[in-house]
Specification:
A 7-stranded antiparallel sheet has the order 1-2-11-3-4-9-10. A 4-stranded antiparallel sheet has the order 7-6-5-8, with no helix packed on it. The protein folds into 2 domains: 35 residues; 157 residues, Umud Fragment, subunit A (Ribbon), CATH 2.10.109.10. Strand 6 and strand 7 form a beta hairpin. The chain is elongated. The protein has 4 helices and 11 strands. With 198 residues, it is of the alpha+beta class. It is found in: Cell membrane; Membrane. It catalyses: Cleavage of hydrophobic, N-terminal signal or leader sequences from secreted and periplasmic proteins.
Length: 198
């Protein structure tokens, strides 16, 4: 009887130690995910041929945490819900959905997009002759999938303060700032630093 109690206490102690270790590991993982970086998966064809559907990307969150402005050509992850104020609660929700999406494709978010930064605050962008013009200069964009895009807009777009203009590299198959407008810097939630897929 005494032995059974001792064994029971040992089991409870062992389970408690495991639970404690798991909780600490999860807390560290969440902090890293919120403030340092994450791995995410590409869904869709909007960044071909740079990235493909199913590619895994390493994303730095450091610029988002510090509120830094990205630079031309940076590939970023954005929250496409540009008409609402983004808060820290959204960052926490991102962590949960990112972990769930590893186990189930149905848990993937459809408002987190991977795009390339084309315009910064104060820039004037024009879309003519199948190309992007920034501040009167046609951009050389060797990363785009096709030599010409099927998009024209007669009125120039001026990027407001605190916003960026982003586009997919597969211009003819991308939802981006041409349709949702300039993206607030708060909605730039990460900067792609590495592609894990080969």
């Amino acid at each position: 009887m005494v032995e059974e109690k001792t064994i029971g206490k040992q089991i409870i102690h062992e389970v408690g130690e495991w639970l404690y270790a798991i909780i600490i590991a999860l807390a560290i993982a969440i902090v890293v995910h919120l403030f340092v970086g994450q791995i995410t998966r590409v869904s869709g064809e909007s960044m071909e041929d740079t990235f493909h559907n199913g590619d895994f990307l390493v994303v730095s969150k450091w610029d988002h945490v510090r509120g830094n402005m990205p630079t031309y050509g940076d590939i970023v992850i954005i929250d496409s819900r540009v008409n609402r104020e983004r808060t820290w609660q959204d960052d926490v929700t991102d962590v949960v959905s990112n972990y769930l999406s590893v186990f189930s494709k149905s848990a993937e978010r459809h408002d987190a997009w991977v795009k390339r930064v084309i315009g910064l605050p104060g820039d004037t962008l024009e879309f003519k002759n199948g190309h992007v013009w920034r501040n009167g200069q046609e951009l050389e964009e060797p990363y785009t999938k096709e030599p010409s895009m099927n998009y024209t807009q007669t009125a120039p777009v001026v990027i407001p303060e605190g916003h960026v203009f982003v586009m997919g590299d597969n211009r003819n198959h991308s939802s981006d700032s041409r349709f949702i407008g300039p993206v607030p810097v708060k909605n730039v939630i990460g900067h792609v630093v590495y592609n894990l897929s080969f």
